[in-house]
Every structure is written in structure tokens, then in C-alpha cells.
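Sorry to interrupt, but I need a hand with the structure work. Could you write out one complete protein record for me, on any chain you like? Just paste the record in under my message, thanks.

. . .
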Amino acid sequence: MTSLSPHEWFKSSYSGGSGTECVECAREVGSILVRDSKRDRGPVIAVQHQTWILFVDSLPRGEGDH
């Protein structure tokens, strides 16, 4: 599939190689955009920048954290 979006989408470096379970993100002024990597023409969720930072900071760090 080819994206029609003008945004530069990226995946996490922790994303699996099979492409079956990943989201993509893109930066926009004041927000982060999130979509299903398998549906690049599907719905997009916009999250306020500060909310995204709080979310990412709340994620466990290291391989032993679950």
C-alpha cells in the first residue's frame, strides 16, 4: 500500500519484523499521529504532544519490565 499522507511516518525500533502487530507514528505541530501500520489509509488518532510524552514515559524500561 502507498500512503497518501504528507506526514513522515515511523515505527518503533522494537517493532517485530513480520509487520503484523505495529502502529506507526508521525509528528504534527502540537500532536502525535498514530495509525495501524497495515491500514495506512485507515483512521488516524491525534494525541496531544504532552499527553504522548506522559504515555511514553509511563512505559516500562528494559527487557525485564512487564
